[in-house]
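Sequence design from tokenized structure. All designs in this work follow the same two-part layout: the structure record, then the generated sequence. An example of the structure record is given first.
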């Protein structure tokens, strides 16, 4: 591969620090203590009955809008923001959740509390056979954000765009306009990069300044993070900007925070434009059905405060309800696998493979190590002062996941296409709220204990390009029932995914064997899950058993409304995100991603939102000028 020398280390945009008073510190202390204790008493919902109308009567007419956007998550907020730039288009946003709160904008709180609050739909998978055995009932939690900002209200804010080969593959699958050279300008359009880590390179020609979405590096870096970076450089990795030209290597994470505050899509894209007269955002509004007559979309039915409404779309309905809820809504509206819909008594509008092809990255937990480096423990007060003053430190980070590296293992043929992501977390890689949400079985969490110690660290192993596929299906035709989620991780018959995990485990152990990690006396400290204790520790047989207990999907589900040219082969939307065979209806969110990428997917959702807006503008504005 050619070397590319356009690296610059410079503050691309100017950052300032904020001032605060003693009163602010005390207020934040109370805010944080109250928020965390509320989360520990919170019980996640198991359905959407809270929205159910109190009276049975015909829906009230809510008028006609040019565009109706269903869901204001990572993608929907971008769509609504960009479409409402056209002042004579009336845009209505219907979002089931609420606006974000001040508490949730404290980046770390998503991990400490928000995950156990009304901002999480609270989904769980059905019992699994090949993964999730470490969790109660063998069911994995499946957090999905509910509110303006969507799953970016809960997420780790890691900003990684994926490998150029990912997008060239999308293009090659019959999706013109989605090659890397097409989508790179869209990533840049959203972005406002601030280089905050003088030691980490930023490839300036791949970034831009002035967009709505702040991107910066987490600071300060811990000593152990520096060891991780050195260890990987010893292994041959370059210190790179993985969002730049070289997409293999090691890098301190780039994240979406602004002065340490959460920059979810609502905060970044929608809140700044809420005063537009042509934009209406309705929260606490659950869309229960897309109304389609013949093959033409008329509008949607939604419920708000126990009252049903019908609203019509003059131009289009855009569904951005996410990888679980978009297929649910389509199926409730008659778009989905005909047999499945008929079995639930739903009249079929269009027979499409909605809810099929669910795929996700894999997350292997439990790769826990001890070291002789002890991280300092600060009081809450000190953490608040760091956060309010400089936007740095513990509260400014979702979790201490501070660096990432990509590798290719032998199972992956293309040398430029990594298939393993390792992310590094030092100390406190969990919280009481997260543990409560995940529902670890005590005997398994004991085996991987140690992650709270101030001198331990954890490496999350994430195999990419997985072959296993799962489904999202309806429990019934009742829109207030949760759908059935079956991620089916580690199930592909050729064992591609299991073999990738095994190769990844070998790689992790090699990294721990480097001089850099030897110097800090890094020792593997995971114990055997009880069900595998009859097997010799760390042999292939042992790992084949253990990974069923310590592996889950990685919160990056995609492809349940897959984009592609061929409905007969399972594609749901075309390259313009139009639902095949149904007029005036598009889906734009992670569910359309045709093939999982070599990265986290939130920034890709922003890119999809930008793309949708460009396509729609080109469609209607160009037509109008004829
Ligand atoms: C714990 C966790 C950590 C993660 N960390 C990262 C990370 O660090 N980096 C990264 O890149 N990715 C991360 N992800 C993944 C990423 O955040 C999601 O993939 C992305 O936010 C999905 O965006 P979306 O637009 O598809 O859907 P969402 O953001 O989920 O938006 C869907 C919206 O639609 C609303 N909605 C749904 N149904 C209805 C309905 N019927 N009526 C009205 N409204 C409805 C929802 O309430 C929600 O607001 C993480 C995910 C999780 C769960």
């Amino acid at each position: 591969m050619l070397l590319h020398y356009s690296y610059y280390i410079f503050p691309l945009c100017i950052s300032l620090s904020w001032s605060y008073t003693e009163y602010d510190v005390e207020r934040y202390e109370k805010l944080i203590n109250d928020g965390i204790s509320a989360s520990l008493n919170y019980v996640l919902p198991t359905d959407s009955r809270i929205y159910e109308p109190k009276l049975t009567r015909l829906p009230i007419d809510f008028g006609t809008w040019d565009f109706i956007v269903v869901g204001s998550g990572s993608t929907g907020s971008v769509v609504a923001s960009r479409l409402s730039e056209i002042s004579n288009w009336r845009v209505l946003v219907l979002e089931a959740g609420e606006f974000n709160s001040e508490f949730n904008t404290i980046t770390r709180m998503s991990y400490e509390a928000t995950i156990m609050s009304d901002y999480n739909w609270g989904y769980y998978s059905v019992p699994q056979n090949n993964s999730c055995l470490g969790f109660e009932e063998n069911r994995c939690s499946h957090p999905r954000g509910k509110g303006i900002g969507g799953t970016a209200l809960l997420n780790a804010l890691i900003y990684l765009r994926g490998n150029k080969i990912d997008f060239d593959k999308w293009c090659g699958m019959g999706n013109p306009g989605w090659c890397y050279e097409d989508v790179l300008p869209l990533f840049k359009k959203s972005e406002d990069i601030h280089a905050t880590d003088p030691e980490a390179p930023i490839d300036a020609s791949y970034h831009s300044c002035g967009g709505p979405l702040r991107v910066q590096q987490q600071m300060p870096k811990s000593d152990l993070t520096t060891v991780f970076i050195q260890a990987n450089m010893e292994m041959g990795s370059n210190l790179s900007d993985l969002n730049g030209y070289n997409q293999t290597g090691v890098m301190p994470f780039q994240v979406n925070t602004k002065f340490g505050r959460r920059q979810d899509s609502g905060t970044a894209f929608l809140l700044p434009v809420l005063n537009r007269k042509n934009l209406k955002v309705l929260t606490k509004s659950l869309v229960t059905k897309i109304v389609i007559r013949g093959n033409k979309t008329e509008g949607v039915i939604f419920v708000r405060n126990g009252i049903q409404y019908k609203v019509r779309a003059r131009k289009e309905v855009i569904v951005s309800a996410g990888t679980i809820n978009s297929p649910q809504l389509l199926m409730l509206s008659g778009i989905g696998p005909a047999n499945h819909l008929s079995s639930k008594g739903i009249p079929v509008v269009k027979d499409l493979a909605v809810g099929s092809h669910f795929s996700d990255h894999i997350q292997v937990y439990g790769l826990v190590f001890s070291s002789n480096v002890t991280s300092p423990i600060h009081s809450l007060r000190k953490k608040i002062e760091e956060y309010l003053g400089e936007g740095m430190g513990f509260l400014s980070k979702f979790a201490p996941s501070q660096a990432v590296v990509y590798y290719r293992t032998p199972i992956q043929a293309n040398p430029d296409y990594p298939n393993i992501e390792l992310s590094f977390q030092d100390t406190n890689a969990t919280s009481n709220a997260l543990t409560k949400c995940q529902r670890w079985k005590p005997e398994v969490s004991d085996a991987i204990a140690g992650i709270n110690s101030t001198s331990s660290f954890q490496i999350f192993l994430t195999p990419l390009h997985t072959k296993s596929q799962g489904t999202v299906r309806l429990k019934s035709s009742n829109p207030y029932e949760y759908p059935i989620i079956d991620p089916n991780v580690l199930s592909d018959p050729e064992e591609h995914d299991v073999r990738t995990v095994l190769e990844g485990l070998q790689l992790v152990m090699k990294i721990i064997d480097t001089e850099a990690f030897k110097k800090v006396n890094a020792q593997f400290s995971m114990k055997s899950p009880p069900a595998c204790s009859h097997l010799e520790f760390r042999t292939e047989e042992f790992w084949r058993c253990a990974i069923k207990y310590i592996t889950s999907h990685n919160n990056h589900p995609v492809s349940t409304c897959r984009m592609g040219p061929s409905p007969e082969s399972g594609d749901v939307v075309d390259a313009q995100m139009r639902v095949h065979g149904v007029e005036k209806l598009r889906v734009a969110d992670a569910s359309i991603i045709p093939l999982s990428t070599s990265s986290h997917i939130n920034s890709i959702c922003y890119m999809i939102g930008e793309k949708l807006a460009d396509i729609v503008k080109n469609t209607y504005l160009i037509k109008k000028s004829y």
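Confidence is low (pLDDT under 50) at residues 1-12. We note this feature because it recurs in several other targets discussed in the main text.
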